[in-house]
Amino acid sequence: MEAHRESSEPAPETASAASAAAAAAASVLGDDDLLREILLRLGLPTALVRAAAVSRRWLRCASDPAFLRRFRARHPPRLLGFYVNTGDAQRLRFVPLARDPELAAVVRRGSFDLGEEAGSVRDCRNGRVLVFVGRKYVVCSPLHPGRGNDNLPEPPFPPEAYTLLYYLNDFLFYENTDDSVSCTSVTVMCSPRQAWVHLSDLQAGVWGEGRYSGMIDLPVPGTLRGCDHHELFSNGKLYMMCLPHHIVGFDLPSMSSFCIELPDAVQYEYLENIGLSCAEGSGIFLIHLKGFQISVWLYRTDCSSIGTWKLIDTICLQQAFRHLAELTWDLLPDVIRVAAVGDNADFVLLRIDHKLYYMHISSRTVEMVYEASPGHGSLYGVYPFMMPWPPTFPALNGGHDHDQ
Question: Alpha-carbon distance 42 to 40, whole Å?
Answer without folding.
Answer: 6
